[in-house]
Amino acid sequence: MNKPQTQAQLKHGRVTTPASRGSVAMEVGLLEGWQVNEMEGGKNFPSLTAGPFPAPYQSDSDSVAPPADGFILSGGKADARDCINYTNEEMSKKLNRPFTWPLLSVNPGQTFHVTWQYTAPHTTRGYSWFITKDGWDPKQRISRAQLEAKPFADDFYTQVPYYAHSSELKAKVEHEVKLPAGKKGHHVIVLLWIVANTGNAFYQAFDVDFQ
Q1: What are 7-39's pLDDT values in tens digits?
Q2: Which PANTHER family does its entry note (predicted)?
Q3: Where residue 119 falls among pLDDT bands split at 50, 70, 90?
Q4: One-letter-per-residue 3-state SS of the chain
């Protein structure tokens, strides 16, 4: 049976608390809210290839190509939103003043709570959380080699196919996760809001300091 056709809709969102890199870029005047709402790229991350979403969710819309290395944090956007991928050095040059991405103070294993603001939510498959490896290099842009190979947490709706359950697959305004144990110092967290009925996920990034 063929899947029903769905209209492309501009229904996006971003994390409002705690401060993401997008929030910081808005504060320093590099981006506007609509730009941070639209940091979307292929949902098959960390794969580089477009195509079916992994089992058991193959009935979801196929993924478009996920972001290339160096453009992960902006969801692959290489326009003004590329600033989300900048190192401290790149941001300092852009702003013509010393700059470091502000760090959120966290503890290993703690609950990390985020609040989302949606212009209007997509049919949601779920959320995936990635984090940088121990020993990652903050002087380099975030690449797959800088991140742990697998998410440290997934929060997926299990109902399939999505088009028979669209009223249940709601984006979460309040969302939380348990942070990994054993981390120390500065790390970057990448959060994907994964959409069932399009090929995209929305990417959010946080700089944290494990105490």
Answers
A1: 333 458 999 999 999 999 999 999 999 999 999
A2: CHITIN-BINDING TYPE-4 DOMAIN-CONTAINING PROTEIN (PTHR34823:SF1), GLCNAC-BINDING PROTEIN A (PTHR34823)
A3: confident
A4: CCCCCCCCCCCCEEEEECCCHHHHHHHCCCCCHHHHHCCEEECCCCCCCCECCCCCCCCCCCECCCCCCCCCCCCCCCCHHHHHHCCHHHHHHHHCCCCCCCCEEECCCCEEEEEEEECCCCCEEEEEEEEECCCCCCCCCCCHHHECCCCCEEEECCCCCHHHCCCCCCCCCEEEEECCCCCCEEEEEEEEEEECCCCEEEEEEEEEEEC
Residues 6+ away with beta carbon under 8 Å from 32: 26
Kindly tell me if the per-residue pLDDT of 6 is higher than 50: no
The pLDDT tens digits of the residues spanning 83-112 come to: 999 999 999 999 999 999 999 999 999 999
Token look-up 């959060």 returns: 191
Domains of the chain (ranges; CATH) run: 13-210 (2.70.50.50)
